[in-house]
Amino acid sequence: MPEFITNITPSNNESDNDKQSSGNNATTGVISIIYPPPEVRNIVDKTASFVARNGPEFEARIRQNELGNPKFNFLSTGDPYHAYYQHKVKEIREGKSDSGLTNQLSKLAVVSAAQQKQQELLKQVAEQQFVPKEPPADFEFVADPPSISALDLDIVKLTAQFVARNGRQFLTNLMNREQRNYQFDFLRPQHSLFQYFTKLLEQYTKILIPPKDLLVKLNKESSMGRASTNIVLEQVRYRANYLKYQEAQKRREEERVERE
Question: Which ranges carry the SURP motif domain (predicted)?
Answer without folding.
Answer: 43-85, 155-197
